[in-house]
Design goal:
Blueprint lengths: L9 E6 L3 H12 L4 E7 L2 H11 L3 E5 L6 H11 L4 E6 L4 H10 L3 E4 L7 H9 L7 H12 L3 H4 L13 H11 L4 H8 L3 H15 L4 H9 L5
Helix pairs in contact: 2-3, 3-4, 8-10, 8-11, 9-10
Length: 224
């Protein structure tokens, strides 16, 4: 069956910390006239920054990339409601799936899917459909049938009850790696005052006394 191109190619952002995976996805989409890969990112903060700068039609995000794909999903959805966000992952864990649903993902695709199906899945999402693998649909149905208080509670993000942005998460991760404020600023291309502002925001959100307590909580988080 021939592929019919839309009036203009759909602009796609690919975010995955594994370079070969990004390359494979780009090659698949570059071979389809319906798509134009406009940017690639290797972490959540870069994905959010590029999405805001390039305003893609579709953002394809890895769940487990540095900074958290689910955090990038939340931030992109908040500032770019017209961008369809699809998660691409190896994770079949219910927590990841349901967190993606609650954050507004229009699709949740597994990396072991037939790569030839990816363009159709993304085009369907842009056309208004959703894309979820059949093995996970039954879990989704059971999740949203269950109205007990346990099921109705929102899942904690990043192992915390507080909602950190991907940049705050990145700064906290570097603090935990013993980086100084100046080193973090240089690595993230920020001013030292911006780094300190992110640290202050993290301390406030986590309801701790200082950065040392924030780092201790980060290191001890359940998903570490």
């Amino acid at each position: 069956m021939s592929v019919v191109a839309p009036a203009r190619p759909l602009r796609v952002l690919i975010a995955d910390d594994h370079g070969p995976t990004r390359g494979d996805i780009r090659r698949i989409l570059d071979g389809d006239p319906r798509f134009d890969v406009i940017a690639e990112a290797a972490d959540a903060a870069s994905a959010v920054h590029l999405a805001q700068a390039r305003r893609p039609d579709i953002a394809l995000l890895d769940v487990r990339m540095p900074g958290g794909g689910l955090d990038a999903l939340w931030e992109i959805g908040a500032c770019l409601p017209d961008t369809r966000v699809v998660m691409l992952t190896v994770s079949e864990e219910e927590d990841d799936l349901f967190a993606a649903l609650r954050a507004g993902a229009r699709g949740y695709l597994l990396k072991d899917m037939d790569p030839r199906r990816l363009p159709e899945a993304l085009h369907d999402v842009w056309s208004g459909a959703v894309a979820y693998p059949r093995p996970l649909v039954a879990r989704m149905v059971e999740e949203f049938r269950d109205t007990t208080p346990r099921r109705r509670q929102p899942l904690a993000r990043n192992g915390f009850g507080a909602r950190l942005t991907s940049r705050e998460w990145q700064v906290l991760d570097l603090l935990a790696r013993k980086r100084t404020t100046a080193e973090i600023a240089e690595q993230l291309v920020l001013t030292p005052s911006a780094v300190r502002a992110h640290i202050a925001s993290v301390v406030k959100k986590l309801e701790v006394r200082d950065r040392d307590e924030a780092i201790a909580l980060f290191v001890a988080r359940p998903d570490n």
